Amino acid sequence: MIEASLLPSFTNAGQLQVGQLGIDVHRKIDDRPEQYTWWSNRGQAWAKNVGWRIDYQIATPGIAAGAHSASVYKDSRFSDHAPLLIQYA
Asked: Does 3 map to a domain?
């Protein structure tokens, strides 16, 4: 499956390859597919979990190493986005 927000040609094992920005912390910790942070308000996208992953936390290798959990908060709906939560040591 290709994520529309970040094509495989731009990713490599959780590291964003746009310049030397850093590490995609969410993908470093949880690389499961369909971990979206945005859903259209059309076509029951939320209910069907058809979304895009468009919210990121990019960190230096040192900071990324301190991350120990990642999740997308979907218990309450605030907007068409869901917060990406990363816990660091």
From this structure: no
